[in-house]
Amino acid sequence: MRMSKFYIPTLREMPSDAEIASHKLLLRAGMMRKLVSGVYSYLPMGYRVIRKVEQIVREEMDRAGAQELLMSAIQPKEIWEASGRWENFGPEMFRLKDRNSREFCLGPTHEEYFTDLIKDEVKSYKQLPLNLYQIQTKYRDEKRPRFGLMRCREFIMKDAYSFDVDEENMKTSYQIMWEAYDEVFTRLKLKYKVVQGDTGAMGGKISHEFMAMSEAGESLVAYCDNCNYAATDEKADVVYKVNNEIEEELNMERVHTPNVTTIESLVEFFGIDHGRFGKALVYNIGEPIVAIIPGDRELNETKLCNYLGIGEHDLELANEEIILDITGANKGFTGPVGIKKGVKVLVDSRIAKMKNLIVGGNETDYHLKNVNYGRDFTGEVVEDLLLVREGDICPKCGEQLKMERGIEVGNIFQLGTKYSSALDSNFLDENGKEKPFVMGCYGIGVSRSVAAVVEQYHDENGIIWPLVVAPYHVIITVVNTKDESQVNLGEKLYQELGVLGVEVIIDDRNERAGVKFKDRDLIGIPIRITVGKKAGESIVEYSVRGEEDKQEVEVDKLISLIEE
Ligand code: ATP
Ligand code: MG
Ligand code: MG
Ligand code: MG
After folding, report:
1. What is the model's pTM?
2. Ligand 1 atom closest to the CA of 153, numbered from 1
3. 443 CA to middle of ligand 2, Å?
């Protein structure tokens, strides 16, 4: 391809609304353009990258025995009503009507549709296991589309669905997909962790998320260097050091806490040594254990976020059922805080075991100390209410957990029979008995993975594509297009490399050398050949994007160098 003919509108200026590197660079490098919020076009250079990622995904899915097909993005309401998700999916679902007022959605995901597809057609256990997948455009009317390809309203996903005779076989299918995902993300050169995930809108019990580690990620990953434990902050189990000595039940005490107006001051006042924020607020001090428990529904979200210094996204992570309360640190809040009769309290099962909690005093400037669950208040005990923070204790080995941000690039789910039962999608087992398929589902964010690669591979000058996903392998820069020997040598190399099947692009534009070098850095093609002053002697400069080294190479030796 010739840069002089190529549609690659690079930008000198930083796009003003782009916050993270991948968003800025993919725009600046002329790889994509925004249509409206969360909706992008992939331009020729960018689309080449998308297709390379798709191809890697495709190869690994095929290798794992999954079969590719392509379903419609438009789905009728009826199948979603059968699973109950027409109601439950909420505003993220794009809904539309045809001319006869029949209702449809643009598929945010395809569990119902795949389950419905094989219904009545896959009839016997002999046809199982079956794994079908597609690489297709998905639609989700995200509350806050942002960060370029990271969180779009239209995006490309690979989604696969496995069908098995029973739980055990489904687990085998799940394992096979897990391994295929490891291959995909390794081939994409992503640094990633597999973590226990949230099953969210998909349902089911077990899920794992593949997190590309990056500061730009929207998810928090809690992990342990010592034993490989890793989970999203929503899902991680945390051990609380419950000191036996303080298990005794002390009497509840009312404490005047005039200066306790923030979490920090609360921590200081009570001598808490580390704190955490979760779906409930908990502070763990060894003795006594201090917890801030959920309480008052009237707190308004914005106030709470400001108070805690967290983003509203973090708050969204909290289950709606859970009433967040910043008990006791109660200045500035008018509603009742702390434990109060008649207020519904959800209590994490671990808190329910603790004695000597500190909670709000239902009065400005007062806290209650030595509060016991069960004696002083009761509530609904819930598992896994708490989120995790840096320094919490690993449930597996007792070491301290670390926290890092990650980008969810893939997610696998053990669904069980949720969809097959709901949609009457059954097969006949060995004994001729009708049974619902036992399913798994497996997603990879194809377009989001491109953003994740850029997040992990860039510098201040632009993208540094790993060879496997680079839009082209080699770029030839003709420094001076008025110099005939440079032009001729550049053309010759371009032809020769092309014949060898190397994906090569030549910058033959009549532009200043500086412009071409800047664009070359920005676009991030891995292998660079600069045809300059020494073209007459058949010598060019060879360099690799992201590496300092430059070497002068005789043209004859160039091919073997590139083949390496
Ligand atoms: P998130 O937690 O980021 O909202 P999700 O858990 O809702 O993602 P899944 O339903 O698990 O997403 O979809 C499978 C994959 O599709 C995700 O792991 C992610 O890589 C990708 N994906 C999901 N939503 C988006 C989006 N809005 N834009 C781009 N990719 C997305
Ligand atoms: Mg989502
Ligand atoms: Mg998610
Ligand atoms: Mg997910």
Report:
1. 0.78
2. 27
3. 12
